[in-house]
# Entry
Amino acid sequence: MKTKDEILNILKENGTAFISGEDIAKRLFVTRAAVWKGIKALEKEGHEIEAVTNRGYRLKVVQES
# Structure
């Protein structure tokens, strides 16, 4: 499984909670830079990922009306 796919799985598992890039990197045994590249690749594929300084990443919640 590619790093970006593993990152996506972690973000889905985490739900609406933020997870830091450092924590993702530790779980996947990769560098923080590899996590950042994976996040960017996921965004290019159309995944909406929210990034907040000092909090981390999470999938954006889409509000249905």
Summary: Residues 41 and 58 are 15 Å apart (CA to CA).
